[in-house]
Amino acid sequence: MSERPSVDLSGLVKAYDIRGIVPDQLDEGLARLFGAAFVETTGADAIVTGHDMRPSSPGLARAFAEGAAGRGADVTEIGLCSTDGLYFASGKLRRPGAMFTASHNPARYNGIKMCRAGATPVGQDTGLREIRALAERWSAGRGLPAIKRAPGSLTQRDMLGDYAAHLLGLVDISVIRPLKIVVDAGNGMGGLTTPAVFRDLPVEVVPMYFELDGTFPNHEANPLDPKNIVDLQHKVRETGADLGLAFDGDADRCFVVDERGEAVSPSAVTALIAARLLTGHPGSTIIHNLITSRAVPDVVREHGGTPVRTRVGHSFIKAEMARTGALFGGEHSAHYYFRDFWNADTGMLAALHVIAALGGQQRPLSSLVGPYKRYAASGEINSVVHDQQRTLAVVREAFAGRDEAVADELDGLTISAADWWLNLRPSNTEPLLRLNVEARDADTVARLRDEVLAIVRA
Asked: Where is the Alpha-D-phosphohexomutase alpha/beta/alpha domain (predicted)?
């Protein structure tokens, strides 16, 4: 009997993870093949798995575990957890790991974030391409090839308490002043991790949407979209809280709102944490991606650190963290990376640093982060562009020599002058160009934004 035609999983396997609609693109049969392919690619004898609160997550995670065990790997299933909880387990147990989540995507989606032992990411260039190729081949064939070793075991283990203890061991919050904190979990995994981490802290928590519900009945679990933090902002003002925190669906990102209910930019949070950490580790390297505010490298240098600029994306940040031995890294998207957390991103540890910084002095949060809000910014603006390279070339030519600006192509096109910069970069998955502009004043931002968009959208 001849093999069936090859299966194309390119729509499901992304640059950094696996993500698609259940069951149309991702089902338990395919998850089982991905589990087998993960073990085959990593050569692991033991792995760890976890999953979020989506209705499809337990079944997909179990199927993956069965596929992995079928290739001879012992599987530790930690069950419900945040993505940074899975990274913790991978680092603590020194095992490759797989997390079942689609982060902030709607309920019909699910996916898999994978890492090697020590939470080292698996992306297209570090194993994901091979995992996809194996899954495609096995989907088209008549089963998996035989192996010589015996099937592995499946063991359940609760690591939530260990995760909380590890984070609390990295930040001293024992001497802070009393704080009232509103936490919006968005019906995501922050509803599980926040009580475990905050339980013994000298803070009053006002919980919002802590019920684990992968249908997201209250709002999307994506705090990057301003409409999804409106409830949090209102609750902070209504209760007179000192700050608000919002986690995304898998709780690896954390957004901050000050006592006035105003959003604190992730760049300001990055600068605050960098300044705090550099106090105890002078001379250390701090990573920032190229569309974080220029305030971040400014603050890092002012505190005796060395800023290192990277491309956008967690795989690039983590690779640069490992290469440079960096202490900390931050992105505009509210991903925060810590050397003491296996270079992985954890929104909860970032939240603890903000709480410690605020509670360790008497000023309100708006005053505390004020020195880190130095520039005006456009925010990210997306435009549909099919001939991206030609458009980038036209923009580069239009700005050649302007204000003694310098252009580079580390990630898309960046043009930098003394008082402003702009970045225009292609999306990895859609025919989009993403524009970010920052300058000393809002008028300059508006002028540059409009000039670039006139070219991009012509």
From this structure: 13-138, 162-261, 268-375
Instruction: Quick: pLDDT tens for 104-124.
Output: 899 999 999 999 999 999 998
Domain range for 288: 266-346+361-372
| Helix (H) or strand (E) segment spanning residue 454 | helix 442-456
CA dist 274 to 295, 350, 390, Å?
Answer: 11, 10, 38
CA 245 to CA 179: how far, in whole Å? 13
Task: Write the DSSP symbol of residue 229.
Answer: G
If you ran DSSP here, which 8-state letter would residue 73 be given? -
Is 103 part of the annotated catalytic residue set? yes
How does pLDDT run across 399-427, given as a tens digit for each residue?
988 889 999 999 999 999 999 999 999 98
Residues 320 and 250 in one domain: no
Name residue 436's amino acid: N
Residues 6+ apart with CB under 8 A from 446: none
Q: What is the pTM of this model?
A: 0.95
- Active-site residue among 103, 315, 333, 378? 103
d(CA 396, CA 393): 5
What Å distances lie between residue 299 and 286, 302, 316, 349, 372, CA to CA? Answer: 10, 5, 22, 20, 8
